Amino acid sequence: MLLKVLTISFIFIIILTSPFFSDNGFSEYLVDGTFSSPSGLNTYDINEDGCPDILGSSWNGGLITIWYHQGDTPVSWNRVDIDSGFTGASFVNSADLNGDSVPEILGTAWYAYEVAYWIKQNDSLWIKYCIDSSFIQAHEVQAEDIDNDGDIDVLGASAGLNQITLWLNQGGEPLVWNEQVICSTMTGARSVWPVDLDLDGDLDVVGAAAGNHDIRWWENDGQNPPGFTEHLVESNFYGAHMVRAGDVNSDSYPDIAAVGWQINQVAVWINDGNNQSSWTQVVVDQYFNSALGVGLANLNSDNYLDIFATSEGSGDLAWYENDGLDPPGWNKQTIDYSLPGAWPLACADIDADGYIDIISGANYSTYINWYKNTTYTGISEFIEPVLISTPLNCFIHPNPFSATTTINLSLPESGNIEISIYNIYGAKINQLANQFLTSGSYRFTWNGFNQFFKPVVPGIYFIQVKFKNTCLINQGILFIP
Q: What number of other Cβ atoms are within 10 A of residue 97's Cβ?
């Protein structure tokens, strides 16, 4: 890693990478060969040891399982089944629901009609609490603060009820939930995802329905409880099975990525930021047989979000390299051809080498694998800030920070300002601003979350400020939650 220390009214640490490409990109490692019909995967540092653990749900086995990362090299895992009677377990997630700084596990059960969460007693003992026991054919669950009250709420997709549903967290012990049906016409609803699509500071909701082939989103009005206005993105994405969101064309507006099981496609819809009902569809792959899973991550550390996806029909796990254009083009590379019934997938930096790895499972088998990212190695250049004739005043405080840090800017003249957050490996993880501003004073805040509204791990990050397309500031900050 190349480091350079400069002085521009304060100390800056400069890191920007342009790595070398290496072969096809991923090496396969076994996590578990005895996990029947994996249906959901996620990652979270459950035991708070600094290493990402893996969460899994087993459709046939009715299991909710944690594989604890042992922090060693090569990576090894300790499996703990926290529930073995969650019939038709279809998805798994994690969030700090009760505000005690210890993450809970969430899950959905297709056959048991349940949305539930488990509270940790110790690494091996978890107590189950039910949020909803009549959520017919519960398929997916997400957790974010939808009403901006400081508590984490829960979102779910029900294929049997054709619903996208929100449970507002009311606190208490045990937790009390107020159910709010966002939509009841999503026939065969399969997927739900929270994201601020219109950049108004409130989390909106995106959903996918396999029955009526819809991708829709619901605009959050910012009230408490929130109201939602429905917008149609696509009505002919046959067998829409999973939906995610992220800024794939680097214009600051989150775009939508989805897979269609019947149409055999991976696609993105570009958010133009001007009209909530206007989206430009880009087909990423039109021959991905029975596509079931999709994810977004910057896999090759080039600051653009790539796509990775699973194909049930061909048993493939593939990733699609974003070429950085607008709209982006995509270069497909298959990671694994031998995952029968490939479905669940997740990503995290498993081996702490600075590159995002992929975790996937085969629903027709008993295997969970993780794939070490070897797409890029080495560092070929670094970029320094430069000075402009008129000084740009910038003050970032606090540093270190635990909740939020504020970037105070004084612009000497009008121009486009871009503020981005990078990790220590040069990967762009969030963008706070990309807009034209007149001269004057401005304030921007970062809350320690990435572009997917997920908290980043503790460590050093870099705030990069560009003014008129010129890199002026790369300041190192320390995040200690």
A: 24
DSSP 391: P
Cα distance between residue 315 and residue 291, in whole Å: 10
Please tell me the pTM assigned to this model. Answer: 0.78
- pLDDT above 90 (res 85): yes
How many Å apart are CA 402 and CA 172, to the nearest integer?
25
pLDDT tens digits, 206-252: 999 999 999 999 999 999 999 999 999 999 999 999 999 998 988 88
CA pair distance 350, 333, nearest whole angstrom: 21
Asked if pLDDT for residue 375 goes beyond 70, the answer is yes
- The kind and range of the H/E element at 66 are strand 63-69
What is the mean pLDDT of the segment spanning 442-469? 80
CATH fourth-level superfamily of 26-373: YVTN repeat-like/Quinoprotein amine dehydrogenase (2.130.10.10)
d(CA 276, CA 17): 36
Q: Could you give the CA distance from residue 165 to residue 143 in angstroms, rounded to a whole number? A: 12
Q: Are 67 and 84 in contact (CB under 8 A)?
A: no
Tokens of 468: 């008129």
Give residue limits of the domains in the chain. 26-373, 393-479
Per-residue confidence band for 480, with pLDDT thresholds at 50, 70 and 90: low
Q: Do domains 26-373 and 393-479 have the same CATH topology?
A: no
Distances (CA, A) of 429 to 246, 323, 461: 11, 17, 10
Half-sphere exposure of 53 (CA within 13 A, CB side): 22
Q: Which range has highest mean pLDDT (11-15, 264-268, 351-355)?
A: 264-268
| Strand-by-strand arrangement of the 255-260 sheet | 240-246, 255-260, 265-271, 279-285
- 415 to 418, 436, 456, 469: CA distances (angstroms): 10, 5, 30, 9
So what's the architecture of 393-479 in CATH? Answer: Sandwich (2.60)
Extract the runs of DSSP E, i.e. beta strands, from 184-223. Answer: 189-195, 204-209, 214-220
In the structure encoding, which two tokens stand for residue 478, read together? 């320390």
